[in-house]
Amino acid sequence: MTSATLRHSVWILRGNPLTAVAAAGVALFVLVVIFGPWIVPYDPVVSNVSEALQPPSAVHLAGTDQLGRDVFSRLVIAARLDLAIAVSAVGISFVIGAVLGAFCGYAGGRLDRGVGRFVDVMMAFPLFVLAMAMVAALGNRIENIVIATAIINLPFYIRFARAEVNVRRNVGWVEAARACGESHFSVVLRFLLPNILPAMAVQISLNLGWAILNAAGLSFIGLGVKPPTPEWGIMVAEGARFISTGRWWLVAFPGLALMMAVLCFNLLGDGMRDILDPRMRT
């Protein structure tokens, strides 16, 4: 990062403190994911029925669930799984979608129109329902959740890369690269794709939050991760049965963790859009 870009980023963050808070929240989230197994006070899957449904206290910071498992420990370990699913799914969809969309936008013609119509058809379906159908057909294993989430994220990157490359494919520096003997394959991978990656970083941040929500939603309806594996969606679904009895912490803490993670990624995406927008540099 150049000094000018760093100064511009600091200027944006000073004018938009929510972005700075979101960045700090994402950093904290990543630290929890990395050091989670060393900071949890209890084993997240070991039951202790004698301490079931205990409210938050100094012993159990977020209380215990119906099997006596420590809710705080399960929250921390669940963050690792949800982020791993989100990063894997978004990474797969980003790589495939960006490359496919870039080549389609560069080539134009029938290939571009065909892929464009395919993407339009995919986006005509409710994407969460499409993910539900794929996981139900493939089986609710973690790898299938990653595949389903990656597939429903593909249209965003394909459309974005197609549009950006289509605008740039005939500009002067691309013509100069072709005149110097660069192949079409090389022009796309060495010149066009790196040029659109900063703008695509905004979409990555937004999709990470959405992917976490998608994984939790699948688990909530029973199509995601299987119990007793700690996962935010499962914790909310299990805790919902006890709301009427006043055990609010079983839903409140995993729901709050899910909300904060998605909110931080979304706010960070908005801030990155401002940082990368050339119009904000004037």
From TrEMBL:
Domain of life, per the record? Bacteria
Q: Which residues cross the membrane?
A: 20-40, 83-106, 118-138, 144-160, 204-225, 248-269
Q: Which InterPro entries match?
A: BP-dependent_transpt_permease, MetI-like, MetI-like_sf, OppC_N
Location, primary (coarse class): membrane
Q: Which UniProt keywords apply?
A: Cell membrane, Membrane, Peptide transport, Protein transport, Transmembrane, Transmembrane helix, Transport
Describe the location of the ABC transmembrane type-1 domain by residue ranges: 79-269
Q: Which CDD domains match?
A: TM_PBP2
What is the annotated signal peptide range for this record? none
Q: How does it sit in the membrane?
A: Multi-pass membrane protein
Task: Tell me where it resides.
Answer: Cell membrane
What Pfam family is a match, any one? BPD_transp_1
Question: What PROSITE patterns does this protein's entry cite?
Answer: ABC_TM1
Gene Ontology cellular-component annotations: plasma membrane
Q: Does the keyword Secreted apply?
A: no
Q: Name one GO biological process term.
A: protein transport
Query: What protein family does this chain belong to?
Result: Belongs to the binding-protein-dependent transport system permease family.
* Record's protein name: ABC transporter permease
